Amino acid sequence: MERVKKKRKVKKRWTPLKIMLLIALVLVVGIGGFIGYTYYQVDQTVKKIQSPVKNTGDAVVEKQKPVSVLLLGVDQRPGERGRSDSIMVMTLNPTRNESRLISIPRDTKVDIIGKGTNDKINHAYSFGGPEMAIKTVENFLDIPINYYAEINMQGFTSLVDAVGGVTVVNDIDFDYEGEKFAVGKINLDGESALKYTRMRYDDPRGDFGRQMRQRQVIEQVIDKLSSDVSISKFNAIMDVVGDNAQTNVSFKPMRTLAFDYMDAFKNQENLKLEGTGGKEADGIYYWHPTDASLEQTKTALRYSLGLE
């Protein structure tokens, strides 16, 4: 069994999210020099990616109350529903101008709501799509999920290419799928960035190290989106989102989230579950949070949502 280091909470001014690109793109609308054009393009893209999954967030956002969003990065192959290999929950409180983010390890063993089994949390999506993933996460964290957004791995690759690649500082030397990633500053195109963010078995931090590398890459993507946006680049980004993302956040609440919840976005606290993992009787690896860590996380999220 491996033990994860003690839970840490880190205040960060901005921690971009792989799947929350939709909201980040709306932020671009507010700072671009071609507002009318981008407004129309974003509106059309959001219509294209709308999911039939019902949300409970529109009335909440209209009153500018605390809201929660489930963020999914889906590994999806042709003909398959795929699995949610990146699972994050973000809460936004516009009254206190703060947000909280928790990454749930994909191997976490939980009750799969609607399936009647105890399995890895990332299997909820493959069993029952975003609806089952939402219900399972709600049960696990004891909070309501108001919205969800997802992007598949091809979208992640294409997005990095659309902004011209990214540069990150790598802190661990490793090889993955035939490519070497040396310690230090490295340049990544879309394919290399996907490999860089997928590796976890050679990282002593496991899934937490992988999550850190994901945030590194998307942080650079967001920096490029906010500092260098041409019409051609913007169109390429819209195409990536339109072809690879889904959400039940419609355009009007998305605009409200992007602008009226902006201060909450900027004042973000990262929560981290503490726990252990290992192979069980069935020969499969599972991860379990400690009871104390899980309860602490639940309390922090519920407080952020004004539930206690």
UniProtKB/TrEMBL annotation:
Q: Where on the tree of life does the source sit, at the highest rank?
A: Bacteria
Q: Name one Pfam family in it.
A: LytR_cpsA_psr
Protein EC? 2.7.8.-
Q: Which UniProt keywords apply?
A: Membrane, Transferase, Transmembrane, Transmembrane helix
- Cell envelope-related transcriptional attenuator domain location, by residue? 83-226
Q: Where are the transmembrane segments?
A: 21-40
InterPro entries, per database record: LytR/CpsA/Psr_CW_biosynth, LytR_CpsA_psr
Give an example GO molecular function. Answer: transferase activity
Q: Which family does it belong to?
A: Belongs to the LytR/CpsA/Psr (LCP) family.
Name the record gives this protein: Polyisoprenyl-teichoic acid--peptidoglycan teichoic acid transferase TagU
Organismal lineage: Bacteria, Bacillati, Bacillota, Bacilli, Bacillales
